[in-house]
Write a structure and sequence with these properties.
It contains five helices and six strands, in the order βββααβαβαβα. By secondary structure, it is of the alpha/beta class. The protein has a single domain, classed as 2-Layer Sandwich (Nucleotidyltransferase, domain 5). A six-stranded mixed β-sheet has the order 5-4-1-2-3-6, with helices on both faces. Strand 2 and strand 3 form a beta hairpin. The longest helix is centred in the middle third of the chain and has 14 residues. The protein is globular and about 40 Å long. The chain starts with a strand and ends with a helix. The mean pLDDT is 94.
Length: 149
């Protein structure tokens, strides 16, 4: 079965005083939570590794990878909200590299960047998870993120 999903983020990655949730919804739904503490630990580590200029883009793409990796081969199209205007090529390239490195059969056209509205089911899943009204399907750890860099 293949389906189209919308992907949205709630809680900006750079705001290290609160968690970030990235979720997809439509044919299926899934939300992953990145705790504030994990963001406070990973950001300085990526800077130390010389990724200061691109760390937010690489981190967002890596979180997208963690969200999509289990389902990407069933997803016909993942329509990701534009969080970093003008950086879509960088994000998509890193995301595709991670997916392919993990052995996923994925085509570039499966990932698209579009404006996702607050009326989107993905937005609802992300915000309710961030607010604690819905349990995340997965909570990301520091080790899990570092393993991808």
């Amino acid at each position: 079965m293949s389906y189209v999903v919308e992907v949205d983020q709630s809680g900006k990655i750079g705001e290290t005083n609160k968690a970030t949730v990235v979720a997809f919804a439509d044919g299926k739904e899934r939300a992953i939570l990145v705790p504030a503490e994990v963001k406070r630990q990973i950001i300085p580590e990526l800077r130390r590794r010389g990724k200061a200029d691109t760390l937010y883009y690489l981190l967002f793409a890596t979180i997208l990878y963690l969200l999509l990796r289990e389902d990407i081969e069933e997803i016909n199209r993942a329509m990701v909200d534009i969080e970093y205007r003008g950086k879509e090529t960088t994000l998509k390239g890193h995301l595709l590299n991670l997916l392919r490195r993990a052995g996923k059969n994925v085509a570039a056209q499966q990932i698209q960047f579009v404006r996702i509205t607050k009326k989107s089911p993905a937005h609802r899943i992300a915000i309710t998870t961030l607010r604690g009204q819905r349990k995340p399907d997965h909570t990301v750890t520091l080790d899990e993120l570092l393993k991808e860099f």
